[in-house]
């Protein structure tokens, strides 16, 4: 496993000096990064939403909960949330969807929180459907999360005018919006054993986004080191290097050292899985020291059930001995006070 990670990263690094068309220069990327405080926050889905559709559909959009829970984030110094969109919610109600995005951004901005929007996603259920979403399966991690645009749609619609219009409309609408930090164009392409089947949509979403030409940087995070073709394309086309690591600190540090050779700012857009020895206490200080953005998975325990670990359900639905993700209970009580104290301390110390 260590050899595979090293080999894949070296392939990416060896090509890192090539210039992808219209990609930001290293100097522009670094200048952008230097204009921001240390980027720190969480992947955010309100506790009342089981997935992206329940978050964004008119019937279940919940600004009251969003406001309350982003308040929890602001209290510990978080300044960024990574938030997933969904093309089916847009397709069902284009103007309403953009209006709800605007409302979300107003709420986040009132808490001095910027947003990193995610466009497409290859993770979990391959059959998203609009309308009423399922209830959570007791004790099961992300039992209702859905892919976007789904499968086989992510292959069959890779060249579709429909998806192109969606991407360009969202980026044209919010592409000059200072409340939007960065566009994360595709979460974990190749997941669910898709592999290189995801390459056409990955290439197109970069193409469409470059044509829309937003003022914010574009990125797609590296996440699985044996997906060599996808990783290389992602790394060579991202303005800012983003990546996921749920690894223990030693392995995480090796990844950091290798990705540093791109000479670009870095943001870890997913981390923190307590039962995998990837915790706030052993990872957040490392990211702070390296001046790498830190976006953990999960803010408030809720319908996504991400306090439960991957593939290890607790059928009774009782609370696990150790939470996998998330920071707060619904009432704002921290799961662990020492973690919240550390987050507040590091955020306060960062100039």
UniProtKB/TrEMBL annotation:
Protein keywords: Carbohydrate metabolism, Glycosidase, Hydrolase, Polysaccharide degradation, Xylan degradation
Domain Glycoside hydrolase family: 70-298
GO biological process assignments: xylan catabolic process
InterPro entries, A to Z: GH, Glyco_hydro_5
A GO MF term: hydrolase activity, hydrolyzing O-glycosyl compounds
Keyword Hydrolase: yes
Transmembrane segments: none
Ranges for region Disordered: 128-149
Key word Hydrolase present: yes
Family, as annotated: Belongs to the glycosyl hydrolase 5 (cellulase A) family.
Protein name: 1,4-beta-xylanase
Phylogenetic lineage: Bacteria, Pseudomonadati, Bacteroidota, Flavobacteriia, Flavobacteriales
